[in-house]
Amino acid sequence: MFFKSSSRSMDMTALRGMLLLLCCHGVSSEFHSLKYFYTASSGLSNFPEFVVVGLVDEVQMVHYDSNSQRAEPRQEWMEQITRDRPDYWERSTGRFLGDQHDFKGSIEILKKRFNQTGGSHVYQKMCGCEWDDEDGDTGGYNQFGYDGEDFISFDLETKTWIAPKPQAYSTKQRWDQNRAYNERNKNYYTKVCVDWLKKYLDYGKSTLQRTERPSVSLLQRSPSSPVVCHATGFYPNRVVMFWRRDDQELHEHVDHGEVLPNHDGTFQVSVGLNLTSVPPEDWMTYECVVQLKGIEDILVPLDPARIMTNWGGDGGVQSNIIIGSVVLLLAAAVGVFVGVFVFKRRNDSAKRRQAGSDTSSVDPGEQNPAPEAQPLNTEVN
Ligand SMILES: *[C@@H]1O[C@H](CO)[C@@H](O)[C@H](O)[C@H]1NC(C)=O
Ligand SMILES: *[C@@H]1O[C@H](CO)[C@@H](O)[C@H](O)[C@H]1NC(C)=O
């Protein structure tokens, strides 16, 4: 595992309870997506106080933290952006620096509002948009969490804020009154964000629009556990996986896992099937199906001889995968991709600085009136 020092794992334990579940805002993996995670923390010695991570189709493409104080590409194709927008990195850095200030202010306000004097605290924002390249459907979301619980979220339909916690009521009241801010938010999540998503997909098409075939295995932790169909090494993340019997997709006794990133830029996913009430002679009538656009369906019959188990000789297969996934999810949450994702990152900062200086004498707003690439933020008040 990559969390080596004990103080680091203590931080991870502290964080675990404070992070929102990233999986559950109802995003289907059949869409293209652009997401940003903002994480401000206090009292965690081993993490930067502020981290921003941006992902396209679950692939991290931008990173900012309060140590480096620079927006940096995490994919080679992101460097091409300066062709069309020479000041992209300068402007992004400026935006995130402002956000850092707002988020640090917010966490102090939230601590007071929750009557907290010390300890570790995390304030997060998760936001982004989706686009279905087949029917053109789009969607967006923008939500904030404090210490692992929903704090406030934006309703795109009504352009108002939803505050599930009493400590967020006053923020809701103030933000609801800021019509211009809400209008710009709606415009960002329904239009600007989707336009940027399409741009990123185009810049990165040689990697983002490739197809990699998964390897699929059947795993079982103990003789009474569900049999898990596990696919790994696939790309893109838009995968469909299910169990079926006699050409009928099964919905009962089935447990669908989340699609999770691997360290090499591919993805993994699992679907468990509880077979307690199925007599062994019927097992062969079941099969696991994996569908990925651009390749033929992969069919794996439920052959007991093919199941890798945790008992007997080869222990630990499944639990390692699951632990690895949880850690990856957590890492994604706090943006500690350093050392997890090893991307080729050529040192183009000199080139970028030069690109920036070309336009530095021009007011960026006048020179390029296009909307900002990043979401809007404001301090909690
Ligand atoms: C914080 O303290 C104030 C005053 O002591 C009290 O009225 C309020 O209910 C407390 N809030 C919380 C979240 O504990
Ligand atoms: C599997 O199903 C049986 C009965 O259908 C149930 O008792 C058992 O708890 C289930 N196991 C899991 C891991 O869900």
UniProtKB/TrEMBL annotation:
Question: Keyword Signal, does the record have it?
Answer: yes
* GO biological process assignments: immune response
Transmembrane residues, as ranges?
321-343
Cell division as UniProt keyword: no
| Endpoints of the signal sequence | 1-29
Query: Which GO cellular component terms are attached?
Result: external side of plasma membrane; extracellular space
Which residue intervals define the domain Ig-like in the entry?
214-291
Q: Where is this region: Disordered?
A: 350-381
The UniProt keywords, alphabetically, are:
Glycoprotein, Membrane, Signal, Transmembrane, Transmembrane helix
Q: Which PROSITE patterns match?
A: IG_LIKE (PS50835)
> What family does the entry list?
Belongs to the MHC class I family.
The identity of this protein, by name, is: Ig-like domain-containing protein
Native source species: Muraenolepis orangiensis
